[in-house]
Design a protein that fits this description.
51% of the residues lie in helices and 5% in strands. The chain has a two-stranded antiparallel sheet with strand order 1-2. By secondary structure, the protein is mainly α. The relative contact order is 0.19. The radius of gyration is 11 Å and the shape is globular. Helix 2 (30-42) runs antiparallel to helix 3. The chain has one domain.
């Protein structure tokens, strides 16, 4: 199965993905966050139940972790 957002690689960096949540580590760097958002945006046209939860959780994380610049990454979704 394809892994367009690179969850396998991200899980090694502490990202946890479940049926209805995406948990990002406190120490995630903006460049990794931006790559994640690009990946989520790339699959936004595909039907998946998890995608809205992942995007929502990632946006909330960005607002809290990178308040000044998170919108740059959110534009990808």
């Amino acid at each position: 199965m394809s892994d367009p957002i690179g969850l396998e690689k991200l899980e090694k960096k502490g990202v946890k993905a479940g049926e209805a949540f995406l948990e990002l580590p406190d120490d995630m760097e903006f460049k990794d966050y931006e790559k994640l958002m690009q990946g989520l945006g790339a699959i936004a046209d595909f039907s998946t139940i998890r995608l809205p939860f992942y995007i929502g959780d990632a946006i909330i994380y960005g607002q809290n972790k990178f308040p000044e610049i998170y919108a740059q990454a959110v534009e990808f979704t």
